[in-house]
Design goal:
The protein is α+β, with helices and mostly antiparallel strands. The chain is 55% helix and 17% strand. It has a five-stranded mixed β-sheet, covered by helices on one side. The radius of gyration is 23 Å and the shape is flat. Bound molecules: adenosine-5'-diphosphate. The site of adenosine-5'-diphosphate (ADP) has 21 residues, from helix 4 and helix 7. It comes from Aquibacillus halophilus. One of its GO terms (cellular component) is plasma membrane. Its EC number is 2.7.13.3.
Length: 251
């Protein structure tokens, strides 16, 4: 931050400085509002698991010694709710880190082998058929390997969570961009949900009921990562039939 000196400035210069200064104030205000909103959303999301843990702890205190069934139920609930909170706090940290472009570590990566690695680990984790379609054998690309893997992981992980069939992944090179697409044949998204799923903590109602242990943060993290690389993520979907999430990266 530098103090400005308005001595000996012409009216034109002063007008220019006022404009720049006001733009900076607007951006600062926006950023503060975003931070405040995030803290408020995060507290709201953490409140539920904390309340559940608290009430089961009280139950344990009262009945835990006499009733083994209460003991079992309480221990199970406390452990699953604390796992949820751990996952959520890890994702919040990841979101905070990924908001800064300076954190990227650019190197030359082979996108095809990176994609194969992500597919391998998720097809084992979910025992799911995930097929890669591409005519490219090797493609060297400058990006942060860990971050791009994380973004792709989030999209394929979602495809596994919100569908039950085979998943198609494709890599295409266009004139000036690289596209990584993930298609699933699951529940799909309505138009209005498709517009909101990249918002922090947003989950479609069905997803909340599905017990997937989601936080509504995955897609925001993926989008920050891709934006930091100068790209974008687009979604197309037919409700009840399929969804395609595509990462566009400038080549
Ligand atoms: P999470 O999966 O942890 O809930 P995300 O930010 O990754 O959070 O996704 C937000 C919401 O978008 C999900 O809760 C789900 O409702 C919806 N969604 C994401 N991916 C898909 C998909 N492939 N098919 C249908 N719905 C999806």
């Amino acid at each position: 931050w530098k103090k400005i000196n308005t001595n000996n400035r012409s009216n034109d210069e002063l007008y220019q400085m006022e404009n720049t200064y006001n733009q900076m104030i607007d951006r600062l205000n926006e950023s503060v509002n975003r931070q405040e909103q995030f803290v408020s959303d995060a507290s709201h999301e953490l409140r539920t698991p904390i309340a559940v843990i608290k009430s089961y702890a009280q139950l344990l205190k009262r009945w835990g010694k006499e009733k083994p069934e209460v003991f079992e139920e309480a221990i199970q609930a406390i452990s699953s709710e604390s796992e949820k909170m751990q996952h959520m706090t890890e994702q919040m940290l990841s979101l905070a880190k990924n908001q800064q472009r300076e954190n990227l570590l650019f190197e030359t990566i082979n996108v095809v082998s990176l994609t194969k690695d992500v597919i391998r680990s998720l097809s084992v984790a979910y025992s799911r058929k995930i097929t890669l379609f591409t005519e490219i054998q090797q493609l060297d690309f400058s990006a942060d390997k860990e971050k791009i893997s994380q973004a792709l992981y989030i999209l394929i992980d979602n495809a596994c969570k919100y569908s039950d069939d085979e998943i198609h992944v494709s890599i295409d090179r266009l004139d000036k961009e690289l596209q990584l697409s993930v298609k699933d044949f699951g529940e799909g998204l309505s138009e209005s949900d498709a517009e909101q799923i990249f918002d922090r903590f947003y989950r479609v109602d069905k997803a909340r009921n599905r017990k997937t242990g989601g936080t509504g943060l995955g897609l925001s993290i993926a989008l920050y990562i891709v934006h930091a690389h100068g790209g974008d993520i687009k979604v197309k979907s037919k409700q009840g039939e399929w969804s395609i999430f595509t990462i566009h990266l400038p080549y």
